[in-house]
Amino acid sequence: GAGVSQSPSNKVTEKGKDVELRCDPISGHTALYWYRQRLGQGLEFLIYFQGNSAPDKSGLPSDRFSAERTGESVSTLTIQRTQQEDSAVYLCASSKNEGGYGYTFGSGTRLTVV
Amino acid sequence: AQSVTQLDSQVPVFEEAPVELRCNYSSSVSVYLFWYVQYPNQGLQLLLKYLSGSTLVKGINGFEAEFNKSQTSFHLRKPSVHISDTAEYFCAVSAPSGGSYIPTFGRGTSLIVHP
């Protein structure tokens, strides 16, 4: 597609439930990144995929968080047993290889845990 | 690992005045530098980037930034701001050659343009 697409745009869930967030990167972009942005805060790196290499999971805050990506296509970020502190906007970005062309962001998924 | 410091969390300015948003980085290897803008309830949009070559980089919406290697800075400037420039601005650094491809973002600077 023309841009990075994220769905849903908004998600309200009850504490303890699992949620799945989806990111559809720009076709041909080998690299994909997930970030978390809490209200009034900067971007917190979560996970990075590059082609078929093993993902860099160093930013995942706990084992409740996981992400998958098949090849260079769609990625899903899963949060299990959601907590109120998980409430944030989850942003996905993609780039060609090492990012020299810049990183294109989706509009994000606003997650609210009640 | 690289890091980014945005020195001002908030910058108020009057319309048509000049503005500078400050960004300093640290890295032991060569870097790519970026400025992104985030309008309310939207994703991040690339304003400009520095990869190599000329240290003065021009971007969209009349913004420009200057890479200063000795001061490890990449400050964003605009000679005359508009109300519509009110937004959050993020500086980012990546180090694809010998460092990390993963961009590290600053905490953001909120630019508030008053009429």
Task: Give a description of the structure.
- The complex is a heterodimer of chains A (114) and B (115).
- With 114 residues, chain A is mainly β.
- Helices cover 0% and strands 46% of the residues of chain A.
- Chain A is built from no helices and ten strands.
- In chain A, the strands form two sheets. In chain A, strands 2, 4, 5, 8, 9 and 10 form a six-stranded mixed beta sheet that branches.
- The mean pLDDT of chain A is 92.
- Helices cover 0% and strands 50% of the residues of chain B.
- Chain B is built from no helices and twelve strands.
- In chain B, the strands form three sheets. In chain B, strands 2, 5, 6, 10, 11 and 12 form a six-stranded mixed beta sheet that branches. In chain B, strands 3-9-8-7 form a four-stranded antiparallel beta sheet, with no helix packed on it.
- Classes of the chains: A mainly beta (114), B mainly beta (115).
- At the A-B interface, strand 4, strand 5 and strand 9 of A face strand 5, strand 6, strand 10 and strand 11 of B.
Note the total helix count of chain A. Answer: 0
Report the strand count of chain B.
12
C-alpha end-to-end distance of chain B:
41 Å
Beta-strand proportion of chain B? over 45%
Helix content of chain A: under 10%
How would you sum up the major sheet of chain B? 6 strands, mixed
Output the structural class of chain B. Answer: mainly beta
Instruction: Please trace the helix and strand order of chain B, writing H or E for each element.
Output: EEEEEEEEEEEE
Quickly count the helices of chain B: 0
Order of SSEs of chain A: EEEEEEEEEE
